[in-house]
UniProtKB/TrEMBL annotation:
PANTHER family: ISOCHORISMATASE HYDROLASE (PTHR43540:SF1), PEROXYUREIDOACRYLATE/UREIDOACRYLATE AMIDOHYDROLASE-RELATED (PTHR43540)
UniProt cross-references to InterPro entries, sorted A to Z: Isochorismatase-like_dom, Isochorismatase-like_hydrls, Isochorismatase-like_sf
CDD domains, A to Z: cysteine_hydrolases (cd00431)
Pfam families from the UniProt entry: Isochorismatase (PF00857)
An annotated Gene Ontology molecular function: hydrolase activity
Domain Isochorismatase-like per the UniProt entry, residue ranges: 5-177
The protein's name: Cysteine hydrolase
Domain of life: Bacteria
Hydrolase listed as a keyword: yes
Keywords: Hydrolase
Organism listed in the record: Catellatospora citrea
């Protein structure tokens, strides 16, 4: 079986706050616990920029509004939500755009670790999950999406992506089913 890693993407405090779902962080925590119990790497992907945001172009429709905005170092909103905080040994990768691969060293970390299969979770389904899935598929990674480990502000968009779009390039399952299968693989 190819070596897997769980990607926990964009679960920073300010992002989680915009997607109110009281069951989300506990479900995500269950996926993280299952990965750790199985000895799988847990990789957190966060969006971040240098002071002054030199990586941001005003032409970028999504991030351009942040160009030149003063962001205090260590801003609490940019931190990973404490309910799913990294543990010792987990990896944190900083990206500069929507895809987890864009402007980050994620590909290097994965290849150095012999990772061939990515298990995707994160906020938002139509943002980081979609962009990362597409790029990862083009990079020949095997993919699994934990549908209830992803959130989107539009439930219909989430449904269409997880039921119709993602299955073309990935296996789509639930946190509970993936955790059970991951646990069973240990025995």
């Amino acid at each position: 079986m190819p070596q897997q890693a769980l990607l926990v993407m964009d679960v920073q405090r300010s992002i989680v706050a915009r997607y109110p779902d009281p069951g989300y962080l506990p479900r995500l925590g269950a996926a993280i616990d299952a990965a750790r119990a199985a000895g799988l790497p847990v990789i957190y992907v966060v969006v971040g920029f240098r002071p002054g945001q030199p990586e941001i172009s005003v032409r970028n429709k999504m991030f351009g509004r942040l160009a030149g905005v003063a962001m205090p170092a260590g801003d609490e909103g940019t931190q990973i939500h404490p309910d799913v905080a990294p543990a010792q040994g987990d990896i944190i990768v900083t990206k500069r755009r929507v895809s987890a691969f864009a402007g980050s060293d994620l590909d290097m970390v994965l290849r150095a670790g012999g990772i061939e299969h990515l298990v995707l979770t994160g906020i938002a389904t139509s943002g980081v999950v979609l962009s990362t899935l597409r790029q990862a598929a083009d990079l020949d990674f095997a993919l699994t999406v934990l549908a209830d480990g992803c959130l989107d502000n539009d439930p219909e968009v989430h449904r269409v992506l997880t039921e119709k779009v993602f299955p073309v390039q990935a296996d789509v399952t639930t946190v509970a089913d993936w955790a059970a299968a991951t646990s069973a693989a240990l025995w």
